[in-house]
Amino acid sequence: MEKNRTKKHTLLIDMYGVILKESKGYFIPYTYEHFAQTAHDRITRAFREEQLFTKAGNGDLSSDAFLSRLGYTDPAATMRDYLENYLTLDEGFILFAEKNHERYDFVLLSNDVSEWNRYLFDLYGLHKYFKDSIVSGNVRMRKPEPRIFSYALDRLQCSPGECTLIDNSVKNLDAAQRLGIGTVLFNRDKEAYTGNIVNTFEELAQLLLL
């Protein structure tokens, strides 16, 4: 995938399921675990009918407002607890980034609550690796919507052939591929995919050199 060019190739890298081992879908069971059974119907309505998680990820609710409406009495402490204690950084990413962030332009492309993304970047010192960060909660669009990929290309001033998306969702990869963006499935969930597949950052580094 690596080409001889003056301009660096851009890697659009997902956060959850790639840099972090877990999908943010774990937050829903986390919430059920933290409230009594008598509150579970209310929580189900908040997630399914009120779509609070989606609204927070789309930038329509702040983290504090989102967590308060779920019933957490200390939203800031809840955010810290979940992000620090229930999600796991893939240490392979740090090794990959140290070796490759000057060879490629790293750009985060993630569906996330704005404040959560900022906290994770600070927690793990990710700023030094990334040229830019495109987060659904900031730009009010999300993967796999085609417009977020078009937005990324415009913002980064890249052609589709100058970018590769590394993501753990086949739906996201398919949407990017339809626009001509290169794709790699980071296959934590053992999904079927006909394109490029890696299971580790070591495999990703080798694939990018082909």
Explain how this protein is built.
The chain has 210 residues and is α/β, with parallel strands linked by helices. The chain is built from eleven helices and six strands. A six-stranded parallel β-sheet has the order 3-2-1-4-5-6, sandwiched between helices. α10 (170-178) links the parallel β4 (163-167) and β5 (182-186).
Question: How is this structure best summarized?
Answer:
Helix content is 45%, strand content 14%. The protein has 210 residues and is an alpha/beta fold. Strand 2 (105-110), helix 7 (114-124) and strand 3 form a beta-alpha-beta unit.
Provide keyphrases for this structure:
globular; 11 helices; 210 residues; alpha/beta; 6 strands; 6-stranded parallel β-sheet
